[in-house]
Write a structure and sequence with these properties.
alpha+beta, two-stranded antiparallel ribbon, binds iron/sulfur cluster
Length: 144
């Protein structure tokens, strides 16, 4: 049965609730306290709430994984902004890579990557990343 979040007094109670026990549309807490300029605070220093996706490891949901190609990336940060699971690691506005423990393999980062060819592509989970990089497609020419 759905729980009204207003009834919950201890934030840790939320972590034990199943997705079907929350009221549809409920907003979950990101942090246990207000954080200013969160983009400037390193991930390991942020006060993540138990309901933040950073506290959950969903990597074993994946059947495909995003592989990152540094040579093509323009550090636009689109993947970092759109990833729903905080799985893109970025420092000083430079993309570093994918945190696979938190990546569920949804492919949104690949969809939003604007380079040609893309700097993130989905490959089978079992494939070695170096092998994936060796198979990267070439630039697509536009029809004139
Ligand atoms: S596949 Fe989905 S969860 Fe994984 S890094 Fe890309 S956007 Fe994030
Ligand atoms: S969206 Fe693509 S180009 Fe932009 S930072 Fe991510 S990997 Fe790099």
């Amino acid at each position: 049965m759905a729980r009204d979040l207003k009834e919950i007094k201890d934030i840790n109670e939320i972590k034990d609730l199943g997705w079907d026990e929350l009221i549809p549309g409920a907003a979950l807490f990101s942090f246990t306290e207000p954080v200013e300029d969160v983009a400037e605070v390193p991930m390991e220093e942020r006060p993540y709430a138990p309901t933040n996706s950073h506290e959950w490891q969903v990597g074993d949901w994946r059947v495909e994984k995003p592989v990152y190609n540094r040579d093509l990336c323009i550090d636009c940060q689109f993947c970092w902004v759109f990833c729903p699971d905080m799985s893109i690691l970025s420092r000083d506005k430079k993309m570093i890579g994918v945190i696979y423990e938190h990546c569920k393999g949804c492919g949104i980062c690949v969809e939003v990557c604007p380079t040609n060819p893309k700097s993130l592509l989905m490959f089978p989970e079992h494939m070695d990343n170096d092998e994936a990089l060796s198979m990267w497609p070439k630039k697509e020419e536009k029809d004139k």
